[in-house]
Each structure stands twice: as structure tokens, then as C-alpha cells.
Amino acid sequence: MKYTLTLFIFIFSIRCGFTQETTYVIDYDLKKAFKQLPTSSTFPSSLFIQTGNSTLYQVKYGVTPEEKVEDPNNLPQGNVIVVEGSDAFYFRNEGDTTLIYDDHIIFKHFTVKDEPKFNWTLTKDSKKVLGYNCQKATANFRGRTYEAYFTTDLGIQGAPWKFHGLPGVILHVYSIDGVFEITATGIKTFNDIEPLENPLDTTKMITWNQYKKKYERKYYELMNMVVGSGTGDYDSMPKMQLELLVEDRN
Known about the structure:
This protein is mainly beta. The protein has one helix spanning about 210-230; strands spanning about 5-10, 20-30, 40-50, 55-60, 80-85, 85-95, 100-105, 110-115, 120-130, 130-140, 145-150, 170-175, 180-190, 205. The strands form two sheets. The chain has a twelve-stranded mixed beta sheet, covered by helices on one side.
């Protein structure tokens, strides 16, 4: 979502009226390596998990891993989440299957209300990530197969991006085709934090199916324009990005 101004979600310490809860901040590197692009891209991101409340996943597309040394979301004494103009957000209330996030078609942005479902298969494979014991799980989701390593050592549940449904926190997840990977780089905790708020405009939300239909309509509209002009293949709007967006027509 594009913002004309830098917004701030102020998170104050609450002394009265709220039960003291712990906020977990898990930092990740998010890597995308689409085959139609010459190089891969890696972006810093953070997952905010509040026990008894909600989760917020923030991707800082305007910051490279080299630039994240001065991370504005270390949440020092000010306890403030910085919302930049090129950030992407995924917000979910605890216990709710609905995920709210911003997405776009060409240059038009939409607030999407999605209910992604993952049918995870737990395996006996395991490894350590950041010193935490992690178990491997696999799932097929909207055109890709994912392998995820999650930990129950933290005693909480949560996951970056749209991932959901495992009995712990995902610290490493990737698609087996090498297109998508998210790796935890650090974990911090904070106490006495006000409940997270959704930074997205929810007044005009559309569902995932509505978004997909809009994307598919624009895809074939552009394809027909290209075919009619005889200028060749149109590949800047693929059928599949991180998820399958255009079904093959019979």
C-alpha cells in the first residue's frame, strides 16, 4: 500500500485496564526468486505476535538487508512500530481464520480479506533454527508445495505471510521450486504493549476470490490486446506469482 506520509502506530505501555501480555517480534529475511526476473530479491520483515491478541506481519520492501542495521522496529524505549510507504502488512486477530492484507493489480491497490487454508502434513524431520528445536511440515497451497520448520519452544503460534495452522511458530519456510523463502534472523520480546492495530483501510475490502477474478479479467484483457496488436507474448502479468491467479481455460 502506498502512503503519502509516514504513519506511526504508537504502542504505549498500559498500566490499567489491560492484562499484561508479551509481544514477540520475530525478524525474517524474505527472498523472492521469480524465474522471469534476472536476479532474486531479499527484504527484511518482522512478525509481531501478541499472546491473547493478534499478529501483524510487516515486509519492508523499501529496505535491503544491508540497510536494516538501523532497524526502526527494534522497539526501544519508545515502543513504536514504524509504518513506511513501501511496507506490506498482513493482519490477523487471534483465533480468527481471516487474514487482511494489501495487494495490487498493475498499479491499483486493494485491501483483501482472505481465508487461506493449509492442510499441513507433519513429518519426523527436524532441525534447529536460531537455537530452537523445529519440526518439519509440508503443504500444497495455491499452486506451490511448501516445506516449513516450526517450533513449539516459544509456547505461542504464528507465522509470516499467509502461512497458518501449525501448533507453533514458523522460523523457516520455503517453496520447493526455489521461488519463495522466509528465514528467521532474530527473536525479541517486549512486555506491557497495547494491542496491535490493523494499519490497513478496511472500509472497502474484497475477498480473495474477488481479487483473483479481477486479476484474471485484467490478464486476459491485456493478453487479447497483445494478440490483436501482434507484438508478441505478454509476460509482465504472469498467471502465477506467489499464488496461482489465472486458471487455464479449457
